[in-house]
């Protein structure tokens, strides 16, 4: 099977191109690091496999996701590399192209976003580019689907003869070093001439992944010369040689065309969005709007409609059908009180979650996320992080797992660790169902405001903990913070929908798997006790567990065992908390549960409980991701213990101090 | 795509004087973005309290730390 590796700088429209070319789609975003792992797809109506690699500025990795690309090239030999570039920033994009061309595999360079280039009144002679770079060069505009047929045809045809392959001539001393080392690598290590030359250039250029590879493979012709290469500062000369070649090539290929009139929309938007003083209030305003849409204006009314449908016609029809079929009462109870109430109780929150995800996808696709990193950098700097850490945290609003994985774009290991550890404090969408339930019950007039306060409390705790970690880990202030500001894009509905679906499908899938299983488990625990099937839930296993822990939770204002048992199940997946409560309280719909909760909570104890739910133990999936990303069980365990202690402490303070005044 | 150009620059172009004093990773990333000694640089926005600076280089906008900006233009 033919394999095409898709490779390019961030913000070149690479993932959009991948989605247009392939049957399967990957997550699309306008923020560096959206592709945190390589993704696979097949070109439509063909057997050609496309590997979408994370966006990188160079093959010398600084971040963890950048290392994915270099490691891919070290361990795979793609039949073709599709190098996607931003046509209007070709100078710096070609720095990566040269590294790719030197790798030796056939390359097609796509000059994407070609319309932007034309608007500036510039264009390139493609024959000159093809001749100079020694590969096919195609013009595309993936967002408008322009040039895609031509590119697809070129990919289906495979590598075509384009004349001489690119081989830059570096200064004499470097060429001599490359020749000597690569000859030995070919003869002693059985490497191909192309690969040996590429490996040597990358090694000389102080590529850390390549140096680790050389050490691992015991490539003595390179290892023995490392000190000499570094002392001669060959890396600087390599950079200058490449830059000179690019400038000469672009000068030769450059053409002037009539520039089309264009509105300076990015400039106009940025006048407010990145304003030194207004940037932060705008940031807060955008998030407030997002929450109003999700909880007040669109999401909640739709959720109410769905709840009415599931708890009304669906539940009643199922009960009638089971009775008519002669099902035994316990089976009817399992289906109606267990599954429909439990799983349905989670499914009703789909509208709210999807509206929130649509908003996040819109921000990602428009180009706002990079601005958010910029306007929050000064605040993040105070706690030893940089604005880039804000993005994984925002993504954590969707799901902590993806948020933690997005932290791979952060350069410094200590900052990455801190971001990983504070990510679970960001209120993921799985916690929304239980928030919605509480605010509907106790704060009906201020639902959005209360939920927003919980979200901001999560951010505040995350930032506070980051500051403590900064001191504990002795993080220096010299953080790498370089963020590219892409131009704004007119949001495309299909991309927004794909992003929303990609984030939200996991929620629906979980409803059918882990929440389903969790609900059955809860039903079993609440229907059986030491004496077998119990008619009174107070004698069930769930009641025993909850009652045993009640004295511990009473200082937080939690006075009923049902809530404690439900919190336990939340470690499985946070969505399960609300469905567990449905089952524990033996109610069939949200209205019934709200009425039941009103008997056990005051607004103050409800808020303290919400704070506890926000901060206590991360779900299993998040704990697993912390372990895999930090490579340490210790940090995963630490996360469990520390978050539980913080949740308990804060909920205790809120309830106890609040009780003095209310 | 809505537009092409950047925010109207607030000051005249400067030129990158040096990378000396910057850490290795910052230099590598700036090089990868096509920045080199002599590159024209236009500061676009300065954030308060020595927050980040938006610069315009090679028709692209990049946000960098204030200390990095100072080093690039030969200050500090």
Describe this structure as you would to a colleague.
The complex is a heterodimer of chains A (662) and B (76). Chain A is α/β, with parallel strands linked by helices and 662 residues long. Chain A is 64% helix and 7% strand. Chain A has three domains: 3-157, Rossmann fold, CATH 3.40.50; 168-231, no CATH class; 282-476 and 504-661, no CATH class. A six-stranded mixed beta sheet of chain A has the order 2-3-1-4-5-7, sandwiched between helices. By secondary structure, chain B is of the alpha+beta class. Chain B has helices at residues 24-32, 66-72, and strands at 14-15, 40-46, 53-57, 60-64. Chain B has a four-stranded antiparallel beta sheet with strand order 1-2-3-4. Chain B starts with 13 loop residues before the first strand and ends with a helix. The chains are: A alpha/beta (662), B alpha+beta (76). Chains A and B meet through α3, α4, α12, α13 and α18 of A and α1 and β4 of B. β9 of chain A pairs antiparallel with β4 (60-64) of chain B.
Topology:
The complex is a heterodimer of chains A (662) and B (76).
Chain A: E1 3-8, H1 14-21, E2 39-42, E3 49-52, H2 64-75, E4 80-86, H3 90-103, E5 107-112, H4 114-119, E6 122-124, H5 126-133, E7 136-139, H6 148-157, H7 172-189, H8 193-204, H9 208-216, H10 220-223, H11 226-231, H12 234-253, E8 254-256, H13 265-273, H14 279-297, H15 299-324, H16 329-347, H17 350-366, H18 368-382, H19 390-398, H20 400-406, H21 413-422, H22 432-442, H23 447-472, E9 482-485, H24 493-512, H25 514-527, E10 528-529, E11 532-533, H26 541-553, H27 561-569, H28 576-584, H29 590-600, H30 603-615, H31 620-630, H32 633-661
Parallel strand pairs in A: 1-3, 1-4, 4-5, 5-7
Antiparallel strand pairs in A: 2-3, 6-8, 10-11
Chain B: E1 14-15, H1 24-32, E2 40-46, E3 53-57, E4 60-64, H2 66-72
Antiparallel strand pairs in B: 1-2, 2-3, 3-4
């Amino acid at each position: 099977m033919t394999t095409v590796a898709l490779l390019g700088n961030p913000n070149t429209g690479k993932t959009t191109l991948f989605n247009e070319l392939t049957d399967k789609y990957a997550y699309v975003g306008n923020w560096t690091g959206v592709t945190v792992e390589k993704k696979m797809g097949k070109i439509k109506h063909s057997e050609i496999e496309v590997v979408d690699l994370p966006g990188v500025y160079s093959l010398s990795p600084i971040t963890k996701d950048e290392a994915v690309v270099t490691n891919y090239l070290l361990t795979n030999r793609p039949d073709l590399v599709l190098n996607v570039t931003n046509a209007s920033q070709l100078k710096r994009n070609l720095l990566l192209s040269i590294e790719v061309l030197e790798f030796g595999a056939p390359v097609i360079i796509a000059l994407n976003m070609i319309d932007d280039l034309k608007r500036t009144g510039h264009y390139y002679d493609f024959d000159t580019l093809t001749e100079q770079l020694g590969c096919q060069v195609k013009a595309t505009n993936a967002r408008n689907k322009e040039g895609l047929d031509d590119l697809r045809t070129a990919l289906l045809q495979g590598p075509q003869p384009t004349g001489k392959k690119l081989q830059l001539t570096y200064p004499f001393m470097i060429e001599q070093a490359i020749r000597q080392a690569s000859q030995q690598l070919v003869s002693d290590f059985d490497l191909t001439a192309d690969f040996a030359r590429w490996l040597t250039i990358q090694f000389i250029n102080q590529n850390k992944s390549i140096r680790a590879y050389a050490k691992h493979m015991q490539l003595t012709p390179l290892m023995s010369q490392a000190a000499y290469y570094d002392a001669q500062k060959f890396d600087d000369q390599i950079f200058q040689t490449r830059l000179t070649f690019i400038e000469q090539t672009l000068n030769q290929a450059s053409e002037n065309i009539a520039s089309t009139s264009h509105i300076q929309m990015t400039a106009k938007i940025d006048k407010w969005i990145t304003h030194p003083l207004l940037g932060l209030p705008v940031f807060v305003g955008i998030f407030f709007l997002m929450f109003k849409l999700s909880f007040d204006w669109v999401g909640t009314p739709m959720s109410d409609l769905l709840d009415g449908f599931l708890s009304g016609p669906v539940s009643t029809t199922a009960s009638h059908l089971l009775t008519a079929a002669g099902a035994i009462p316990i089976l009817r109870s399992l289906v109606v009180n267990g599954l429909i109430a439990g799983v349905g109780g989670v499914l009703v929150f789909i509208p709210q979650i999807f509206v929130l995800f649509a908003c996040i996808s819109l921000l990602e696709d428009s180009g706002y996320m990079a601005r958010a990193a910029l306007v929050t950098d000064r605040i993040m700097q105070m706690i030893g992080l940089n604005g880039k850490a804000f993005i994984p945290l925002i993504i954590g609003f969707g799901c902590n797992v993806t948020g933690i994985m997005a932290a791979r774009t952060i350069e410094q290991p200590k900052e990455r660790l801190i971001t990983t550890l504070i990510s679970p404090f960001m209120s993921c969408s799985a916690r929304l169902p239980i928030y919605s339930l509480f605010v509907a019950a106790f704060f009906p007039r201020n639902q959005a405001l209360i939920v927003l306060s919980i979200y901001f409390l999560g951010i505040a705790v995350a930032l506070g903990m980051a500051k403590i970690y900064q001191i504990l880990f002795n993080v220096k202030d010299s953080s790498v913070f370089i963020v590219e500001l892409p131009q704004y894009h007119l949001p495309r509905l299909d991309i927004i929908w794909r992003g929303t679906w990609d984030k939200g499908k996991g929620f629906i899938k979980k409803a059918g798997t882990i929440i389903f299983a969790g609900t059955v488990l809860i039903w079993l625990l609440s229907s059986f006790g030491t004496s077998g099937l119990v008619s009174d839930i107070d004698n069930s296993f769930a009641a025993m567990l909850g009652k045993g822990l009640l004295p511990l939770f009473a200082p937080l204002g939690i006075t009923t065992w049902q809530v404690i048992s439900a919190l336990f199940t939340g470690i499985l997946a946070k969505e399960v908390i609300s469905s567990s409560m449905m089952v524990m309280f033996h109610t069939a719909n949200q209205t019934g549960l709200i009425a039941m909760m009103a008997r056990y909570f005051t607004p103050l104890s409800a808020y303290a409980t919400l704070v506890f739910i926000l901060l206590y133990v991360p779900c299993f999936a998040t704990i697993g991701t912390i372990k895999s990303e930090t490579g340490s069980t210790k940090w995963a365990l630490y996360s469990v213990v520390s978050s539980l202690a913080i949740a308990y402490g804060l909920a205790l303070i809120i309830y106890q101090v609040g009780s003095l005044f209310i | 795509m809505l537009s092409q150009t950047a925010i109207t620059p607030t000051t005249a172009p400067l030129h990158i004087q040096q990378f000396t004093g910057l850490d290795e990773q910052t230099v590598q990333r700036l090089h990868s973005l096509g920045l080199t000694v002599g590159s024209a640089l236009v500061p676009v926005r300065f954030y308060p309290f020595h927050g980040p600076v938006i610069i315009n280089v090679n028709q692209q906008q990049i946000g960098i730390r204030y200390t990095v900006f100072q080093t690039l233009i030969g200050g500090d």
